[in-house]
Structures are given as structure tokens and as C-alpha cells.
Design goal:
There is one protein chain. The chain is about 30% helix and about 30% strand. The protein has about 450 residues and is of the alpha/beta class. Strand 4, helix 4 and strand 5 form a beta-alpha-beta unit.
Length: about 450
């Protein structure tokens, strides 16, 4: 049976369930019939653009998604910039793409940056989009009657892939530019029991468990499942989330822009920090001799778009992609995510994963959020420093914090320095902006 694109799935839902709501954006509801009609009208705007890149700011509204789907129908390639991209950035990208043709089968370009801050354009094909969507729907058992909440930026795979999955399943996608407490609980109040799913990064989950209060009791009868990913979620927070939402299925997913959606683990009844589960149907993984996670399957990117004096395309020539993520495969065949290679801190000859330090600190009641960074040291070369946001008006006692961390960590993993801060820098998707702290060092 030939593969259907996401747009063909939308077309099918428009025929079979035309009045079903496809999207809720800024209070506006769009049925599948309306979405299809507006997409087909918009497609005329992109006629003759086959294999050409069209620059699009990923604003959190219906107009963006209609244009996005219309580009695919017309055979154009959606080159996605942040919603906050300036006109100058848009023009610069358009000039870089003049006269450039993408390989057949290309659909999207998403930009990701390394620790240097240099952008890399990841070219994703139609097959990879559908393969990731199928993986999500399979791994988390999406239903057509689910309203799935996606708070975040749509130029990132984490959020955009949930749009793909929701459209494939014929469910309803509820978009928010960023996570908003009041809007989230207001949406839950308007929904039926066990009819809502949500993609929430760990920082949003910690906010819910610490400050949700009485509203979490109402959420417990509405939330069918929650998916998280990105930063590490510590075991105590997992357990607290399950305690407050005892009937909600809870998932931790491994995905990246280059690999697509690879694995997911349901931690509802088994809270294992770092476990991201078994490979999903359209993906495979193993570990290289150096300890890096290597992925294969239909979810992989097509290649990189290199932006410089001349715009060039660098295809992925291998059937697998080796990430910069360190991991292990446990005795049951599940993938265990440890940390990103670039995150590892070498202190006095010991290699330390900051995520393991942060997981221990986040398990303490007085810690609302934290990040472990490297700071210069005359003897060790680099020493560990923990930046801590206190929960409430608590004054962090560094000696007491260090003493309790020693109960959970190896001696070389316990930070030497501590600083209480008002807040931590976040990415547009609500994750702690680790790259910003790396660049400051």
C-alpha cells in the first residue's frame, strides 16, 4: 500500500469526518473540511515552486499551518524560521535559496545549532515526516477523539512532529505559542474526561507538580496522556506526576531533528530516569563503540543544507546517523539516554554528566530548577558549579545542599560551587537553555 502524506491524511479525514475539529488556535476552531479547503486554495499560491525552498515564519496560527501544508501539496519545500524572525533574516534566507533546487522528496528544512551557535539546515523528507508521525501514533496510542496540546515553537521537531501525528490520527491539535497555566487548565475544563493529550517539556511538568494545586485534581480526570522529552526528568518528579495524575499515561520520548522520532517509554508505573524505551516501528538504534547513540530507519533526515558563500546540499550517505548523545542499551533492550557529548564536563580527569547532577538536585524539595555548569579551576581545570532556583522564599544553604548531594552522587559528581539565582535562561520551547550557559564559559 503506497504511503500517504500528512496532507493526504487530512484530505481523507475531510471526506470521512468533515465536521471534526482539526485545530484550535487562539480560540479559533478549524474543521478538517475547512482546513482542506483553505489549504487547497493556498496551494495555488505555490504553483510552479516544485523543489524550491519557500521561507516561512513558524507563527502559532492557522495561517502558518495552512501555508505549510499547501507548500507540501504544491511540491515546494518549507524552510522554517522562528516566529520572531526579523524581515532582514527572512530576506537573507530567501536570497541564499535563490536558484537552489532541493532533491526530489524533500519537504521541510528545520534549523538546529551546535554549541558554536552555527546554524545547520536539516532537510527532512516526506517519508521521514510520515514515519515519525506513525511512530508517535503507534507508541502512544493516539485516538481521533483526542485533543492534543502543543505549547511551543513549530520550527522545532519536538512540537511540529506532534502536529504531524495529530493530523495523521485525525485528532484535534490545540496550539499555544508557549505553555500558559491558565490557558492550559481552561482548555482542560472545556474537554471531556480522559480526552486530552499534551506534549510538555520537563520544566513545564515541574511547574505543574509544584504549583498546579487543586487544578491538578481536575486535570487528573481529563488528561489521557502526557509526553515529555528533551531535558532529563528526574525520578522523584516522575513519581510525583503519577501520584497527582494516577490515571494518565506518561511517556518519555527520544527524538532529534536529524533522527526523527526514534523511541518512547511509558513511565506511568515504572519511573526510570533516562529510559526512553524500545525502538518504534519505523526506527532502529544501537550504541557505537564510543558510546554514542546511532539511529537508522525511515525517520532519518535526507541531509544538511549548508549555508555559506554558496548554498549547497550534503546528503546523508549512510543508512544510519550517529548522534552526539551518549547512551546505553539495558538488559531488556531499552535505550537509556545519558547526556549529550557536548554537555560532558571534565573535572580533575573525571567525566561528569551534568544531567545526573541536576536529577539529584531536582529531587530535593527546596530546588525548583537548576543547571550544572563548568567553571575554571586552578587545580581541576574545570570545577562543577550548580545554579539553583529555590522553590518559594527558601534560602539555599550550599553546605547543606552539598552534603545531601553526596548521599546520591559519587564524590567527583558533587559540585564545588553553588549560586542561587532568580531564574534560568530558557529556550522558546521552555527547556533550560544549556547552550547559552556553554557559550558563556
Amino acid at each position: 500500500m503506497p504511503m500517504l502524506s500528512i496532507e493526504q491524511h487530512i484530505d481523507r479525514h475531510a471526506q470521512n469526518a468533515p465536521e471534526r475539529v482539526a485545530m484550535v488556535l487562539n480560540g479559533e476552531e478549524l474543521t478538517y473540511a475547512e482546513l482542506r479547503q483553505r489549504t487547497m486554495l493556498r496551494t495555488q499560491h505555490y504553483q510552479g515552486m516544485q523543489r524550491k525552498g519557500v521561507v516561512l515564519r513558524a507563527s502559532c496560527d492557522a495561517d502558518f499551518l495552512i501555508s505549510y501544508f499547501a507548500m507540501h501539496v504544491a511540491g515546494a519545500v518549507a524552510v522554517l524560521l522562528p516566529a520572531a524572525a526579523t524581515p532582514e533574516q527572512t530576506v537573507r534566507m530567501e536570497k541564499a535559496l535563490q536558484g537552489f533546487y532541493f532533491p526530489e522528496g524533500s519537504a521541510d528544512v528545520l534549523f538546529t545549532t551546535g554549541t558554536t551557535g552555527a546554524p545547520k539546515g536539516v532537510v527532512i523528507g516526506t517519508r521521514a515526516i510520515v514515519a515519525s508521525a506513525e511512530n508517535i501514533v503507534h507508541g502512544q496510542a493516539y485516538r481521533h477523539d483526542i485533543r492534543f496540546v502543543v505549547p511551543g515553537q513549530l520550527n522545532h521537531l519536538g512540537c511540529l512532529s506532534k502536529v504531524w501525528a495529530t493530523m495523521l490520527a485525525g485528532a484535534t491539535c490545540c496550539l499555544m505559542p508557549k505553555f500558559d497555566f491558565n490557558e492550559f487548565f481552561s482548555l482542560l475544563a472545556s474537554c471531556k474526561e480522559m480526552s486530552v493529550g499534551a506534549f510538555l517539556v520537563p520544566s513545564c511538568i515541574r511547574m505543574l507538580t509544584k504549583f498546579g494545586g487543586k487544578q491538578m485534581e481536575d486535570a487528573a480526570i481529563k488528561l489521557a496522556f502526557i509526553e515529555t522529552g528533551g531535558d532529563a526528568l528526574d525520578t522523584p518528579t516522575m513519581a510525583e506526576l503519577h501520584q497527582q495524575l494516577p490515571h494518565t499515561r506518561l511517556f518519555n520520548t527520544y527524538a532529534s531533528t536529524e533522527t526523527g522520532v526514534v523511541a518512547t517509554f511509558e513511565f506511568t508505573h515504572h519511573q526510570l530516569a533516562g529510559c526512553v524505551g524500545y525502538a518504534l516501528p519505523n526506527a532502529r538504534f544501537d550504541i557505537t563503540p564510543e558510546g554514542h547513540i546511532r539511529c537508522a530507519g525511515d525517520t532519518l533526515m535526507n541531509g544538511y543544507l549548508r549555508m555559506g558563500d554558496q548554498t549547497t546540499y550534503e546528503p546523508l550517505t549512510e543508512k544510519s546517523f550517529t548522534t552526539c548523545d551518549c547512551g546505553e542499551i539495558d538488559e531488556q533492550g531499552r535505550l537509556q539516554f545519558k547526556c549529550r557529548d557536548s554537555d560532558i564536563i571534565n573535572t580533575g580527569g573525571f567525566k561528569v554528566s551534568p544531567q545526573e547532577v541536576e536529577a539529584a538536585a531536582n529531587s530535593l524539595a527546596e530546588v525548583k530548577a537548576c543547571i550544572c555548569i563548568a567553571t575554571p579551576h586552578p587545580i581541576l581545570g574545570q570545577a562543577l558549579k550548580l545554579l539553583v532556583v529555590a522553590d518559594g522564599d527558601v534560602e539555599i544553604n550550599a553546605k547543606d545542599l552539598a552534603r545531601r548531594l553526596k548521599e546520591q552522587l559519587e564524590p567527583h559528581q558533587v559540585p564545588l560551587f553553588y549560586e542561587q539565582v532568580e531564574s534560568l535562561a530558557l529556550t522558546p520551547n521552555g527547556k533550560i537553555d544549556r547552550k547559552r550557559y556553554l557559550l558563556r564559559q
